[in-house]
TrEMBL record:
InterPro entries cross-referenced by the UniProt entry: Thiolase (IPR002155), Thiolase-like (IPR016039), Thiolase_C_2 (IPR055140)
Native species: Mycolicibacterium rhodesiae (strain NBB3) (Mycobacterium rhodesiae)
SUPFAM superfamilies hit by this protein: Thiolase-like
Top-level taxon of the source organism: Bacteria
Name of this chain's protein: Acetyl-CoA acetyltransferase
Amino acid sequence: MGIGVVIRNKVAVVGYAQSTIERRAGRALGAITVDTARAAVADAGLTLDQIDGFVASSLLPSAGGHQPIDGVSTVSSVWLARSLNLAPRYVAGFDGIGQVSGSVGMAVNALVSGAADYVVVHRALHNPAGSYHGNAMRVAGGSQQWTAPQGFFGPLAMIALPYNEYLQRFGVSRESMAAVVTEARKNGSRLPWSYWRDRPLTVDEYLAEPTLVDPVCRLDCDIPVDGVAAFVLTSAERAVDLPNRPVYVAGFASSAGSRRRLPLHWPLDDILDGGADTVRRLWRETGLTIDEVDLPQVYDGFSPLVWFWLEVLGLCPVGEAHRFVESGGIDSDRDGALPALSGGGALGNGRMHGIPQMLECYLQLSGRAGERQRNVSVGLACQSAPHFGGVVAYSSEPV
């Protein structure tokens, strides 16, 4: 019996809260997280004393030598539970890439096993002062001794490698990426909590940006922000007695990347082949196919990841994502198009990791998207790179 059979339709998301996303907030990250968690619990129709599980990932995504301080630059599940004056039965933190999808997986397992009855999953992102990805190292040790002295350092160099490879292999120009970034910004500009609210982007504005690490420009990267989101999960049986329409977790899959590579070495074939393996595991565990997915929320912390996810999911052939997007394939305003960035993603909200993808799935599938509401029933929330991240499948009804 596969794990998907055990967890499928057993757990539902029943409430949420999202803070305003700001470049730098005027309040401490911990204080924002406490308020957001309280709001999520209230939204679910619960009281704090009913919450007996907390899951988070407290990774600080900065390569500039910034120190993680719990409650200040990061917020762990332990810190949050203590700050709410609770003594839950289950407290855990996800240690890996794909922070939101990994945390959801841990929460699902806790609920299915009976380790907890009501679990808060949160992600708190902080934008430290100073240069976000500046290299403060004076000595390079471990695997970085083979890369940092030569200038191969940080996420920009990491994503520039497969992005360049894609452009060269498939005869694409970086101008094609304008269609991805402007789509994300268009959708993010419509959201009241987004950093980019009321600030869509034109193609000319995108193309005017100089490159940082060729071919990556500033607008190909999600902007570092302060922001928090929290979700409440419980069993499907308990969910039916709560006020919001439940959104079911159909299954999830994750990948830890290739063991043969240095941490920042992401060749294109590794991404596409590893991503295909991740997606095959998702279909095996959920019993779904891509044809049943009408809300694929692809990850876009860096714009090339949109192309990579579209292709490994089978939404377009390998090497064709640039044409698919340029032809309106993910235009959220076009009838028949795939709403792959309808929630704005990271490029349209700010660096919230996989929160925009999960939030859009929850809002749309629970019927709580307001004027943006779509007629959809199965969503995917992707995070990080296809070969080094995760994906969770959600549904409005048991599948």
